[in-house]
């Protein structure tokens, strides 16, 4: 009954623009579908082949000029066949086409009316393609055109968040994680939550109640808590590996829970983090953490970290779990490839490689094994160029 009233309240807000707040909705933990992963299933010497899930791989060099240099590719989003890349070294959002050609950049760091102090996260509006930058020091979202990068709007907020997504107008889905909002904004947050929905700076919904613990600040968090599966937004908690779908009324719906059989110590939002125990477990290989999570019609795809990065996929047609391990080989082109997932949309998985490494790998093949595709690719890149995006076409199980 409480959930029904919450939905009615939200519909009234949308239609009448009244200041209605939806408070905590109790989550039934039994609704999570558990995915059990044993990192010991595969040796660190084993090499998996990308053709197991891929039909093709395409290598896309990103255009490089003196004014287009990516120092640290922190986050990549793909929208309308364009790559949006956050370079945390220069506090810039670069936009490239699917052919790697530079389109525009948003480089507005400063204190002016159309500028941001720094980038804490960014997202793409799922309908318009506009770029939204969140700056914690600016306490605002900064909106720029996705077409040419010109400034559109500044939206002040009274909230500290880790990452966000935006959809359906100007509704912001915010993951606050361990942020101490109750301490800084007690009038707005008499109670603290890890998930907050904002519209016109009004809290539409908030779930995942949380008591701030300073020890959690020592635990690394991801910049990719939100991902998309068709029209569904997914929220992934990495310190406590649970994945939620977000419904039409912005409520969290339990979806998946990831359990690693090698873990001797599990971190929790409900208690202090024992940093010494965490480090000891990590050093001994007894701590595996989830690093990324994506879903398509055919697959669940994720990275995990156990000293090295590992790769797992779940084939949804038969619910089988496949641990690809720590080393991935592009047997379609005949060269090693990165195991780290940058982004996944409905048909493609994206990763990247450095041009210097790629050139070395191509040279090592020799004339006999080197394909015309790789020979042509080698003529288009130099060691000091921007990263090369690898676009992997996923197999369809239909």
Please give a structural write-up.
It is built from five helices and 28 strands. With 398 residues, the chain is mainly beta. The strands form seven sheets. The protein has a five-stranded mixed β-sheet with strand order 1-19-18-17-16, with no helix packed on it. A hairpin with a 5-residue loop joins strand 18 (242-246) and strand 19 (252-260). It is globular.
- Helix percent reads 10-25%
How many helix segments? Answer: 5
Q: Between the first and last Cα atoms, what is the distance in angstroms?
A: 40 Å
Uncertain segments are 1-22
Strand order of the largest sheet: 1-19-18-17-16
Mean pLDDT metric: 88
Principal-axes geometry comes out as globular
- What fraction of residues sit in β-strands? 35-45%
The assigned structural class equals mainly beta
Note the main sheet: 5 strands, mixed
CA-based gyration radius: 22 Å
Spell out the key features of this protein.
single chain, 398 residues, mainly beta, four-stranded antiparallel beta sheet, 13% helix
Layout of strands and helices, then pairs:
Layout: H1 2-16, E1 33-37, E2 48-49, E3 54-61, E4 73-79, E5 82-87, E6 92-97, E7 102-106, E8 121-124, E9 131-135, E10 140-144, E11 151-156, E12 163-167, E13 171-175, H2 181-184, E14 193-199, E15 202-209, E16 226-229, E17 232-237, E18 242-246, E19 252-260, H3 275-284, E20 289-295, E21 299-306, E22 308-315, E23 320-325, E24 328-330, E25 335-337, E26 343-344, E27 348-353, H4 355-369, H5 372-378, E28 388-394
Parallel strand pairs: 1-19, 2-24
Antiparallel strand pairs: 3-28, 4-5, 5-6, 6-7, 8-9, 9-10, 10-11, 12-13, 13-14, 14-15, 16-17, 17-18, 18-19, 20-21, 21-22, 22-23, 24-25, 26-27, 27-28
């Amino acid at each position: 009954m409480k959930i029904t009233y919450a939905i009615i309240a939200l519909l009234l807000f949308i239609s009448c623009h009244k200041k209605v707040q939806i408070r905590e909705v109790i989550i039934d933990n039994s609704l999570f579908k558990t995915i059990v992963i044993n990192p010991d299933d595969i040796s660190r010497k084993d090499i998996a082949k990308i053709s197991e899930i891929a039909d093709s791989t395409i290598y896309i060099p990103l255009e490089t000029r003196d004014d287009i240099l990516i120092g640290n590719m922190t986050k990549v989003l793909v929208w309308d066949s364009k790559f949006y890349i956050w370079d945390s070294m220069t506090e810039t959002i670069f936009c490239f086409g699917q052919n790697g050609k530079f389109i525009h950049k948003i480089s507005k760091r400063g204190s002016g009316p159309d500028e941001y102090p720094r980038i804490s996260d960014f997202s793409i509006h799922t309908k318009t393609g506009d770029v939204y930058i969140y700056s914690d020091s600016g306490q605002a979202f900064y909106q720029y055109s996705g077409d040419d990068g010109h400034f559109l709007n500044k939206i002040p907020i009274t909230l500290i968040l880790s990452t966000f997504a935006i959809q359906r107008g100007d509704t912001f889905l915010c993951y606050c994680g361990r942020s101490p909002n109750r301490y800084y904004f007690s009038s707005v947050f008499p109670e603290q939550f890890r998930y907050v929905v904002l519209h016109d700076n009004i809290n539409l919904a908030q779930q995942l109640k949380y008591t701030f613990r300073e020890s959690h600040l020592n635990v690394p968090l991801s910049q990719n808590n939100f991902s998309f599966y068709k029209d569904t937004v997914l929220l992934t908690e990495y310190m406590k590996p649970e994945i939620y779908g977000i419904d039409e009324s912005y409520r969290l719906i339990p979806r998946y829970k990831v359990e690693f059989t090698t873990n001797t110590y599990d971190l929790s939002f409900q208690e202090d983090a024992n940093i010494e125990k965490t480090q000891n477990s990590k050093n001994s290989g007894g701590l595996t953490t989830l690093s990324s999570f994506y879903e398509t019609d055919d697959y669940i795809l994720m990275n995990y970290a156990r000293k090295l990065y590992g790769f797992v996929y779940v084939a949804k047609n038969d619910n089988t779990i496949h641990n690809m391990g720590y080393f991935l080989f592009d047997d379609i082109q005949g060269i090693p490839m990165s195991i780290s997932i940058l982004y996944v949309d409905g048909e493609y998985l994206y990763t990247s490689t450095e041009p210097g490494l790629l050139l070395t790998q191509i040279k090592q093949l020799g004339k006999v094994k080197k394909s015309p595709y790789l020979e042509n690719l080698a003529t288009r890149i130099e060691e000091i160029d921007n990263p090369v995006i690898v676009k992997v076409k996923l197999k369809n199980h239909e």
